[in-house]
Specification:
The complex is a heterodimer of chains A (113) and B (116). Chain A is an all-beta fold. Chain A is built from no helices and eleven strands. Chain A has one domain: Immunoglobulins (Immunoglobulin-like). Chain B has a single domain, classed as Immunoglobulins (Immunoglobulin-like), CATH 2.60.40. In chain B, strand 7 and strand 8 form a beta hairpin. The chains are: A mainly beta (113), B mainly beta (116).
């Protein structure tokens, strides 16, 4: 069964450093998302991406964040200058678009020291 | 008032019990409703989705939506220890014909423990 994959599973970085989180969505899906979950809190929407552009973003997704689909298979989230409060699980999701169902990857745990 | 409210639990039941998990919401624009299961430190796994009001059944799982009461439920029949996880409700205000704007709003999750 096709699934969303994410790398790395765990990323440790120093405050102020740039990180890139990578995702490979399900191959025939057209809609791509990033969510985050701070430990013990609810899953929060960051951004959606469709037709090679951002279609929606939350207040969390400020100028420090960017997304890219550099080729036909990868979808990345970049945090330019990480802060302590960026420590969280980051989930990539994809959807085929016929319904609102979104399929999540296993997540990348980001730890900012 | 939070947009989506969900009792955090934990909810502890014996194996074989019927489990009822619920969410309430305040945004009347929500039209798509989903239930995800999340094991510790893993990604949410889609269990059920429904559009608008009504019931949907899939094996041991039944999802129920009552838009008039802004209330959704997930029932698990014959619960198993492997069902022990956190259950997340999620919902979207966008009809499926919209173009790419499908941000999901999640509840905080209910932790379920099924005792063998």
């Amino acid at each position: 069964e096709p699934e969303v994959t994410q790398t790395p599973s765990h990323q440790v970085t120093q405050m102020g450093q740039e990180v890139i989180l990578r995702c490979v969505p399900i191959s025939n899906h057209l809609y791509f998302y990033w969510y985050r979950q701070i430990l013990g809190q609810k899953v929060e929407f960051l951004v959606s991406f469709y037709n090679n552009e951002i279609s929606e973003k939350s207040e969390i997704f400020d100028d420090q964040f960017s997304v890219e689909r550099p080729d036909g298979s990868n979808f990345t989230l970049k945090i330019r200058s990480t802060k302590l409060e960026d420590s969280a699980m980051y989930f990539c999701a994809s959807g085929e678009g016929a319904t609102d169902t979104q399929y999540f990857g296993p997540g990348t745990r980001l730890t900012v020291l | 008032q939070k947009e989506v409210e969900q009792d955090p639990g934990p909810l502890s039941v014996p194996e074989g019990a019927i489990v009822s998990l619920n969410c309430t919401y305040s945004n009347s624009a929500f039209q798509y409703f989903m239930w995800y299961r999340q094991y510790s430190r893993k990604g949410p796994e889609l269990l059920m989705y429904t559009y608008s009001s009504g019931n949907k059944e899939d094996g041991r799982f039944t999802a129920q939506v009552d838009k008039s009461s802004k209330y959704i439920s997930l029932f698990i029949r014959d619960s198993q220890p492997s069902d022990s996880a956190t259950y997340l409700c999620a919902m979207s205000p966008r009809p499926f014909m919209d173009t790419g704007r499908r941000a999901l709003t999640f509840g905080s999750g209910t932790r379920l423990q099924v005792q063998p």
